[in-house]
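Hey, quick one: can you model this chain's 3D structure?
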Amino acid sequence: MSKKRIEWIDVAKAVGIIAVVFGHAMTRHGTMFHFLYWWHMPIFFIMGGFFLKPIVNNDWLGFFKKRIFPLLISYFICGGLLIMVSHFVRGESWAYTAFYFVRLVYGGRTLNHYLSVFWYINVYLLALLFTSIVITYVKNRETQIIIAFISLIVSTSYKHIYFLSHKFLPWDFDVAFIAMFFMLFGYLYFHKIQEFVKDLWVIIPAALFTVWAFWMQHMDRFNFGFYLKSKIIHASYHHIPISRVAYIMFIPIIICLVVFSASYYFCKFMPQLAIKPIQLIGQQTLGIMYLHKAVIDIVDEAGYKSAILETVLAVAISFILSILYAFIKSKVKKSLHKAVS
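Sure thing. Here's the predicted structure for all 341 residues.
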């Protein structure tokens, strides 16, 4: 990314993470719940492809040091801390807690409670690696597009693959190929997306389609379920089953374009006083992603059942803890640097 951040991308990240938190806070799985799951995870994979570049001179070690290891370290640090918090808050046995560290290594759908959203980091890291391999060694753009479609078609053509008699693959490995489709889309069409977000001839029809799809879902004429973690995908229109791949290819992308455009126009017309707080939330999406489920569960245990209240508290508390983590991390790095010097 250039030194000057693109404001609307940070705002879109903020919208996406608030949608994720709200989806987890909801107890009633109605139209809004389904609608949020159509796009709130794909949007992060699409944006993950925006600034990807082919690996130069096969410098994969540099790629791992810069892109993979930092996320991997944060995954185990935050995961370990939350496992211990869960042990004391939920009153879990030491045997359960000890085995949860094994589950943290295995990842994917074996993670639940406070760590139920950690599958996203597993899948994101795998999709990042797979996408980088494709754009590094496959130079032809049309071939890259074909690979994106093949990865989506194959990965959605079955329900489960068993690994050593276990129902779930480590790190939700197969889900990463669905995520790779969205990441490759973000990589291949970032410049087009930058044009589309400003083009009302594109965005108005996309927004109208979004409203129509939401209303059809509400009226039970349209039925689309898209849950990446569990790989539960179903699609029908007027109760007639239709291609799940077609729905995945178009609906999340169209809605994400609407979110991108709304974020762009928000940044264009609103004062910096309104933009900056949203942008700051967008810059802390990883910390909020890690922490919000624990906050929601604790608030829920305290007896507060309002999805809106839980969302506000989860975003705010997770944001503050994320900032604090970044501050401590910075201080530790500076101390280590001084010690080495």
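One thing worth noting: The CA atoms of residues 116 and 149 lie 28 Å apart.
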